[in-house]
Amino acid sequence: MLNNSNKLKVSVSPHLVNKRLLTPQIMWLVTLSLLPAGVASVFIFGLRSLWVILVGCISAALIEAVIQKLRGQKVTISDGSAVMTGLLLAYNLPSGVPLWLVVVGCFVAIAIAKQAFGGLGRNIFNPALVGRVFLLSAWPTYMTTFIKPFDTITQATPLALMKQEKISNLSEAGINYMDLLIGNRGGCIGEVCIIALILGAIYLFYKKIITWHIPLTYLVTVGIFSWIFGLKSALFSGDFIFHILSGGLILGAFFMATDYVTSPLTQKGQIIFGIGCGLLTCVIRFWGGYPEGVSYAILMMNMIVPLIDRWVKPKRYGVK
Amino acid sequence: MIKLSEHKELTEHNLIRKAKLPSKVHIPLIQHFGKPCDKVLVKLNDFVKTGQMIATSEGGVFSPIHASISGKIISITDCPHPLLGRAKAVVIESDGEDEKIYDLINRNDEVQAYSAEKIREIIFNAGIVGLGGAGFPTHIKLKPPKPVDTFILNGVECEPYLNVDYRLMLERTEEIILGMKIIIKVLGAKNVYIAIEDNKKEAIELFRRANLPSNWIIVVLKTRYPQGGEKQVIKSCLNREVPQGKMPFDIGVVVNNVGTVYAIYEAVCKNKPFYEKVITVAGRGLTNSSNLEVRLGMSIRDLIDECGPIKEEPRKVVMGGPMMGIAQYNLDAPIIKGTSGIILFGKDEVVEVQERFCIKCGECVTHCPIGLEPGMISLAIAKDRLDLAQEYGVMDCIECGLCSYICPANRNLVQAIKYAKQKIEDKRTKK
User: Fold this and answer.
1) Is A259 near chain B, with CB under 8 Å?
2) Per-residue pLDDT tens over the stretch B404-420
3) Across the interface, do B408 and A15 touch by the CB < 8 Å criterion?
4) What is the pLDDT of residues A217-249, one digit of tens each?
5) CA of A151: how far to CAs of A158, A177, A193, in Å?
């Protein structure tokens, strides 16, 4: 017999429990998937990069907590999104930056790019990238001084060398594709070790947290474009593998451009977004003022996401 | 559309069995889409027989109501109603005899000579409504204002837990085929489809082996929720869409679900009014989850007892499927014509969740069967922008609940949409 004293719970359907990933789990899993690249960076650049990463994560979380307290809101750093932003920002910094610079970057990322817009889900721009480009324009010397892997001397990135026309192909820089894959090159903390990044990306695909729409179209666009225009002297002979593996493209395509909040809702929109990121990245790399264009490309595409979402609608049932 | 965890195994292999005769039934006067049966044909203390019409109405959209047991009318008053909270109902106390008012006959052959008009009248008098969910009176559905050339039997049953249509297809195959023939005749339909999800292998096999007319086509559909929605079935079978704001008959199609077709068979071929139906009563906390043939008006409590003893106290009791069903707060609420199941959820199957802000992951957009953007609609509703919600197509929502089910931020998407639809509807009728 039923026990009458037991009150029944009433709610609106659906009633079926779904063991799906929730927002905090997604954020922490993305953070987890980024760890191999962090571990690799400690091997490549030494303990210095560990300090940058730790300062990034901790200061991002603290800044978020303080702002939420000031705004009289519930502190939600346990959802992992602030730590993830701090981590991504750290990955976009050279290992030699002073630690106060990391904190300033986190402040810009969390306070201005995220909380000023209303917090998680309401920001227009990828917070970590906003932090990065702020630092890049405020302290360009710190931000473009890269340490040579397994060493303490500084070294320009292959893309910078190519920009300055000091080299015209990879071998002139004294490295090969394998060096790009394992991270034996100058660059930011989290962007150099491609293998570690791919490992994390595979995990995200396996967990169905990201789909192919943005990363694939982004990479393919960069590939095609750099094959056509990559070499100054002749068309259709650019080293597209070099361009795909260089700079922050892999990190950007799999972990930054795929940010849910700042990318289009529909799959069709995401394809447009990916292609747009690819085109802008190449335009900046080949004809712009910077050797690397991933950050600016993604931020510019972030800007037009609301427009993409307005124009690219899913096919409605029964509507012609 | 996505694959759900189905939980069909609880009653998938259980033969339909008759529930024991209830000692009392509450029969609400509104059990269908349309107006209540305002003309009550019985008085207090009257004796009624099983199958006797006890309420009807005149003109408009309604379906008459019948007594489901024989006995004495002990009150006609406001009673619990599973959908409306409370509604006027006729309460019958059983005399234990179950004396029928009709003769159960077998007129399979005679029926061939019946006119469409006569069959519709039998269906009307039997009180049959659509059993797929909406409860629209069947005699009206079978008189479409435009010519119809296609009939689809909806044997999809995509709601988890429920096995009503599946068991009917297995155990009453011939009856369903006869019922289909009646409908096809009434509609004058030339194209006939039988739509079944691929998780119902045995049913597909049975229909394949049955001696079906050569022009009937069995369509095996992928097991995906909400494949069984009328619009989805039409799209999957015919690759055509019902235009926005139109009805299936506008494109020459009528869809009936298995339960309705079986009820039509019983009424037309066997002279039996619609006072009894098959439902699934299931839940982890029940010792004997079952597919029961029950009398309308029986209380949920009686049915839970029928399938007991209880192993685990239910924390939530849902009438209908777990995706679209209605949570009940009063177990005295009766089974009505449209009831497809009673699902019991235990403590750890009922979780309180914290709603978070939309992170625009796009899952709801990717999976919405109607191609809406539930996340954006809910944001518009939260800002009280019903105009914007309408622009986003909120009125097209079929309320399948998939968006809420998959949302990683636990957003109350379909809930907000239902609220907005009601509000917009209210505003429209007030004008």
Assistant:
1) no
2) 999 999 999 999 999 99
3) no
4) 999 999 999 999 988 888 998 899 999 999 999
5) 17, 20, 16
Does B350 contact A at CB distance below 8 Å? Answer: yes
Cβ separation of A317 and B369 shorter than 8 Å? yes
**Which residues, numbered 261 to 300 in chain B, qualify as contacts with chain A under a Cβ-Cβ cut-off of 8 Å?**
none
Predicted model pTM: 0.92
A5 contacts chain B (CB < 8 A) = no
Q: Convert the pLDDT of each residue in B312-326 to its tens digit.
A: 999 999 999 999 999
pLDDT given for residue A306 in this prediction: 96
Contacts with A183 (C-beta within 8 Å, 6 or more apart), sequence order: A40, A41, A44, A149, A192, A193, A194, A195, A196
- Whole-complex ipTM: 0.92
- Kind of pairing between the strands at B24-28 and B53-56: unpaired
CB contact A317 to B (< 8 Å): yes
**To the nearest whole number, what is the mean pLDDT of chain A?**
93
Query: B108-270 has which fold?
Result: Rossmann fold (3.40.50)
**Which residues of chain B does A261 touch, with a Cβ-Cβ cutoff of 8 Å?**
359-360
Domain B8-102+273-348 carries which CATH code? 3.10.20.600
Task: Give A-chain residues touching B396 at CB under 8 angstroms.
Answer: 316-319
Distance CA B389, CA B387 (A): 5
Confidence of residue A5 (pLDDT cuts 50, 70, 90): low
Instruction: Judge residue B223's burial from the number of C-beta atoms within 10 Å of its C-beta, 0-12 exposed, 13-18 middle, 19 or more buried.
Output: middle
Q: How many angstroms separate the CA of residue B193 from the nearest CA in chain A?
A: 21
DSSP string, A216-279: HHHHHHHHHHHHHHSSSSSTT---HHHHHHSTTHHHIIIIITT-STTS-SSHHHHHHHHHHHHH
DSSP secondary structure string, A241-253?
Answer: HHHHHSTTHHHII
User: Which residue on chain A is closest to B242 by alpha carbon?
Assistant: A318
In chain B, what are the domain boundaries?
8-102+273-348, 108-270, 363-430
Per-residue pLDDT at A14 exceeds 60: yes
Q: Is the pLDDT of residue A283 over 70?
A: yes
Q: CB neighbours of A237 closer than 8 A, spacing ≥ 6?
A: A227, A230, A231
pLDDT tens for B263-306 read 999 999 999 999 999 999 999 999 999 999 999 999 999 999 99
Query: Residue B33: phi, psi to the nearest 5?
Result: -75, 125
Q: Which residue reads 């991504």 in tokens?
A: A88
Are the C-beta atoms of residues B70 and B49 closer than 8 Å to each other?
Answer: yes
